[in-house]
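tool_call predict_complex ligand=S-adenosylmethionine
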Amino acid sequence: MPRKDSGWWDDFFPAFRPFFGLISQKRTNAHVRFIVEKLSLKPGKKFLDCPCGIGRIALPLAKKGIRVTGVDITRSYLDELSMKAKRRGLKVDLVHADMRRITFGSEFDAGGNLWTSFGFFEKESDNRLVLKKMYQALKPGGKFMLHVINRDWIMANYQPRGWEEAAGVKSMEERFFDYRTSINYGTWHIIKDGKEETFKLTIRMYSFHELIAMFESVGFTDIEGYGSMKDEPISRDKGMMTIIGTKPRRG
Ligand SMILES: C[S@@+](CC[C@H](N)C(=O)[O-])C[C@H]1O[C@@H](n2cnc3c(N)ncnc32)[C@H](O)[C@@H]1O
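tool_result ok
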């Protein structure tokens, strides 16, 4: 019988590992600067990175003295992060868990769900649950940052196929967009060492106004939106968007 929380992510993400290389160190450094500034992170503050992947953001934040907890479902990513942290003399607390099942309560000054790690579940209540769990994890006054693809950009630029290559590994994605649910059904073909593996992904795409409504429904206030990870407005020309919500101090 499959594990209760099993899904496409179980097999896909281990194979996806080389594609982290698509984000340059320069871009990651800019992301880190934006996160630190917008979430008012300072040495000693507690940050929940969920999901954390291989520590792209968690490690540079830990280097700045921020107390980072990373959550991820992909065991090999957590092993890699743990090894890198050890080698660099950094401390990152790691939790192997599904992002819908985290149980932190009012512990973190800030949290992030970064680089298109949201909307993975076909049931909308599960996607909302991820937001709710992040909300519960924050201290009153804490801030949460979501960094996702902008559905309005996708609609203006939709391509039924896409190709990528990183570290000698190739991918081809065939896409089908369901307009009734705003779920993109992707079939990824990953070709490594002449061998091809196929994965089926579902990602719910959101427009800014839908995320405002979802943020508000779990309790966030003072919702801000930015195009990509920059001080610029969201528009249909921005492929990514960053939404920040605050857990109110009272209520
Ligand atoms: C595109 S990566 C982004 C990682 C990281 N946030 C970053 O910015 O580099 C998406 C991450 O989501 C994780 N993931 C996928 N499904 C998950 C789930 N159900 N629960 C927790 N993590 C999950 C994957 O293992 C992967 O590390």
